[in-house]
Write a structure and sequence with these properties.
The chain has 7 helices and 2 strands. By secondary structure, it is mainly alpha-helical. The protein has one domain.
Length: about 160
Amino acid sequence: MEKTTSDLVRDELKSLTDYSKKVFSTVHSFAISEVWKILQLLVASTVRIIENIAIDLSGQEKKQLAMELIENFYDDIFVHIDLPFLPSAVESVIHSYIKKILMMLVDSAIDAMVSTFKDVGIFSKETVIAQTDRQKKKPFKDFCGNIGKIIGDINDGP
């Protein structure tokens, strides 16, 4: 059975998630500021990957796919988020609320990113059609390169 464009996007994001798990294998908890930085990078990469691969989907379908994939990434990577002003017992209780708030921000970030990319011409039909296979991998490479910078920030501490 031939894969759909949604399946191809899911495969790409699974590779990105697997890579991130390796990069973050020694990180036991994330500060909320690092989580938001990573999610912003992920939004930009996910939007570009979906726009480049899933050209047959409607805008609403693309957004639903992006939200699904980003939420899956969140669940796989951010097992523990450190909120230094709260005791550990309370942190675990409000973890789901933190996720809900961050996903609301991600939802808005997707809209903003798509709008910005359209405004600057990244998503013009001519641009998307003209991209080569090498260029289609660029969002993945961009994310991987930038996530390394964030992990450096996490390991360096405040």
